[in-house]
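= Paired protein data =
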Amino acid sequence: MKRNLGVLLLLALACANPDGRLRPETDATGVSWLRHGRTDAEQRFSPLHQIDEHNVAQLGIAWSYDTRSIRGLEATPLVADGVLYATASWSVVFAVDAATGEERWRYDPGVPRSKAVHACCDVVNRGVALHRGRVYVGTLDGRLIALDADTGAPVWEVQTFDPAQAYTITGAPRVVKNKVIIGNGGAEYGVRGFVSAYDAATGDLAWRFYTVPGDPSLPPESAALERALPTWKGGRWWEVGGGGTAWDSMAYDAKLDLLYIGTGNGSPWTRKLRSPGGGDNLYLSSILALRPDSGELVWHYQTTPGDSWDYTATQHILLADLEIAGRMRQVLFQAPKNGFFYVLDRATGELLSADPYVPVSWATHVDLSNGRPVYAENAFYEDGPTSVLPGPTGGHSWHPMSWNPQTGLVYIPVQQIPMVYAHDPHFVHRPGIWNMGIDGVVGASSIGKGAIEGALLAWDPLAKRPVWRIDHRRPWNGGLLTTAGNLVFQGTGHATFEARRATDGELLFQAPMTTGVVAPPITYQIDGEQYIAVLAGWGGGFALASADPPAETVASGNAGRLIAFKLGGTGALDVPTLARELPSPIASRPTTAKQRKRGFDAFHVWCATCHGPAAIGGGTIPDLRYSSVATYQALDAIVLDGAYEAKGMPRFDEWLSQDDVHAIRAYLTQQREALLSEAAH
């Protein structure tokens, strides 16, 4: 009988503590960081307060770890039993001692570099999930892998999508009720979104929820899709993908037993092409509440009906309890790309408020009586090109925000990057390549024109207004952490790590980081000492497509690091000074204005997304104006024959001709000459 009681006690502890090896009280104390947002509610608030507003200026580097990466780092580290687990670019997983930074193990899944062609926004990964002695990671090429937490050895592996299709995984999985939940990306390339649940022990598929309808001549996969089908009108969207990929945000409420998923943009972007008869196009750009046991849809709220601007609702979803009009409500917060801050009742999906947190021009307001936006004139750019705020990078992108229950504020990394939208008059569906349906020349060449801003915003969800705002030097700054020490922590795109007073935003601590920071920090405690840790590695969509980052952003050659701080830390970073040498002149071949225009157009349709508008690189992959003479000479082999596929540069022989490449070379030579001319003056 005693043995049976002991077994029952162990089972009860295991159920109370889903991570098995960890003490049940760990999550409540904040000693560890076990889940993506610290808890299933994704608040990114820690009750730790050893580091506070009075002593944070005494922070110093405890240790740093070389990730061996020069591409974007976006992961949220997890900490359990004194070990920190994180990911680098190309889906590499590593485990280090959380007190010293000493490497325990490292696992490289061997993602084919050619897969970079399907990664719209860098070859990044946002982290792992932990559960009962295992580490779960989704790879860029679509595998979900379970690793032994002690050794990094693979336990099981499943392919979550057809590898021949243009899907990717960059988001972190979540574990809910012994199921590993994972979505995917790729809407820009013509795919159909879905989210899947796998048995955490075996890797067996438990359920799959498609976010948009498929071929209407076939039976819909769920009752939810049957209800969605009438919102797609005309066209053949199933042949061009449809979109709606669930590539990042998730949260879970155990009491309501609801799993919240954010879905992405349409494929193509413009509704005119995928659904010419109009319609809301469910469940694009929506928040979905699913039953984690079955994947059944309980409710949905669509933030952007008929999305034609890449206004994903995949941005951070966090859960909180809030007293509204004298009544305690279980709420869900989201600040998606479209510029409105939403407060929903998370039990029912009822819209409680929606207010602009950044300048918005595509809609005048959200009508609370029906929950729908009121579109501005020419919002769908049917009457010609129009400049829209926010642009496709959003008023807030994937970078996590944070809720501080002590201040009652949500902290949001916001930005303003306008873009001119115009319909592509020559759109042709190309499987596996960009299929946005907008004029790439007009759009890409407009990025960077107009006011471009980045800021840290403290938002009051009750008063529905900002309380304070700190402007940064540039957009695309890191995700956020708040703590009980009245602090908010953030890394910046201009290569600093900062701590501010949560109540008023006053800067209390700043440290140089040798490269831009886009990842969110975490905090944990070991042997009574509190640490703050963050990955530093400039990257992501804006970093690829932006132009000419400040020197300090990539001063280290964008060498990625994981850096941990503590009070009295005495470590230091090697901060090299890179003097970029001007490129040598290239003997120009005779070209015509027509050829240079062809090169401009081809470059901005096919190349600018990664190599930057006007061929001015963003700092994470080569600035082509500085390439060697040999590279210019080998451009045909690189672009058409895949000579650099092993480095992540895809081949384009299916879409570009030799004449196109020669025109691109002429345009690059022109931009190189302009660089040299400017330097000479």
